[in-house]
Design a protein that fits this description.
By secondary structure, the protein is of the alpha+beta class. The chain has three domains: about 150 residues, Roll (PH-domain like), CATH 2.30.29; about 80 residues; about 100 residues, no CATH class. The chain contains ten helices and 14 strands. It has a six-stranded antiparallel β-sheet with strand order 11-10-9-12-13-14, covered by helices on one side. Strands 1-2-3-4 form a four-stranded antiparallel β-sheet. A hairpin with a 6-residue loop joins strand 13 and strand 14.
């Protein structure tokens, strides 16, 4: 068994790396909960929320551009997979961090054994600890930072993530993600008080310890890989794929409203110009119908961008005109004969539809 395997075996068994001096005994021993590290240290929940917002924004933007809902969902699978991968990696790092970390409180010191690749043991005698604190969470877990005295300092990067956030100039070692943190803080408080002969500075109530209570390491073992994030990630991907499949199977993607009689129509082409403007050209003779000034008519630009994206995806050029059609029931549609895509313009409100109504009149739409 090599040195690294011996260290991992020691972590699995629990206990300190070396026997304690005569007269010193262990009061508590444990380690961080990987779930607390994933949420509060590596911010996996915030990253997941970020990707959910980004995913919703992308789907809404594609649908508003005229993309079918099923196509928008399919186009978001890659982003969904990226978000699942990011959150999964953060959870995996949190699990490894918890699995390779061990804390202990003895009658003389605090011991921190940390490091995923290179294991390092920090021995913090009580005389080097000026004060301790407690950040308690609703579920009973919490963090215990240790403010050190004297001129000796431990580099922040050597401690991270077992360090108090943002305390870079004067790093403070911190027992992170500890279950039953209030009880652990009480043990530390009493140990500091006994060592110094005065009341310690841990800001928590200090209920008396049960007789014979010397260790609490069973609550801190992280010996099995967390399958919950993998199950959740798999379910998210399956739900996305299942929703797309169900939508396509329902036939809603190709459903079309019964067409009412056409009262006016015009064939139009749109050409982007180097200065950001758009030329609106007649599909009959190629004459200029109108010019869209740079930075204006966002709805028109977004609608055309969605139709052009579909043509590009299918490898179709931009030469064939679009059909702008006014119907007897008041509907106004923009249809791409090359791809079969159709946008119901009046669904976006009269102000947006009026942009295309104007083009229909300028071209002299006729039935």
């Amino acid at each position: 068994m090599n040195h690294h395997e011996e260290e991992m075996a020691q972590l699995e068994r629990g206990g300190l790396p070396e026997p304690l001096p005569s007269g010193e005994r262990v009061l508590w021993e444990g380690g961080p909960d990987w779930r607390q590290l994933a949420i509060h240290v590596f911010h996996a929940r915030k990253v997941a929320f970020y990707f959910l917002v980004l995913l919703a924004w992308r789907i809404a933007a594609n649908v508003s551009d005229g993309t079918a809902l099923a196509s928008a969902l399919v186009g978001s699978i890659a982003l969904t997979a990226l978000g699942v991968l990011a959150v999964g990696l953060l959870c995996l790092i949190a699990w490894f961090t918890a699995r390779t970390a061990r804390y202990a409180i003895t009658t003389e010191r605090v011991v921190m054994r940390i490091g995923i690749v290179l294991t390092v043991t920090f021995n913090l005698p009580f005389k080097a600890i000026g004060s301790a604190g407690l950040k308690l969470r609703r579920d009973g877990s919490g963090d215990i930072p240790l403010a050190l005295t004297g001129s000796d300092r431990i580099a922040y990067l050597n401690l991270w993530p077992h360090a108090r956030p943002w305390q870079v100039k004067q790093p403070q070692p911190m027992l992170r993600g500890i279950p039953e943190a209030e009880r652990v803080a009480s043990i530390l408080s009493q140990a500091l008080a006994a060592s110094a002969g005065v009341c310690a500075c841990v800001r928590v109530p200090s209920p008396p310890l049960e007789p014979g209570a010397t260790t609490m390491n069973t609550a801190f073992r992280a010996t099995s890989f967390p399958i919950a994030p993998l199950i959740g990630a798999s379910m998210l991907v399956l739900i996305a794929l299942g929703g797309v499949a169900a939508f396509r199977a329902s036939g809603l993607e190709t459903t079309r409203v019964t067409e009412s009689p056409v009262v006016s129509q015009a064939a139009l082409r749109f050409e982007d110009q180097p200065n950001g403007s758009i030329l609106v050209l007649s599909g009959r003779d190629g004459g200029v119908v109108d010019t869209v000034a740079p930075g204006t008519n966002g709805f028109l630009r977004g609608t055309l961008r969605g139709l052009a994206r579909e043509r590009h995806r299918q490898g179709i050029g931009q030469e064939q005109p679009f059909q702008l059609v006014g119907h007897a029931d008041g509907r106004l549609t923009l249809t791409d004969p090359a791809t079969g895509r159709q946008v119901n313009l009046e669904a976006f409100g009269p102000t947006n539809a009026a942009v295309f109504v104007r083009l229909l009149h300028l071209e002299g739409g006729n039935s």
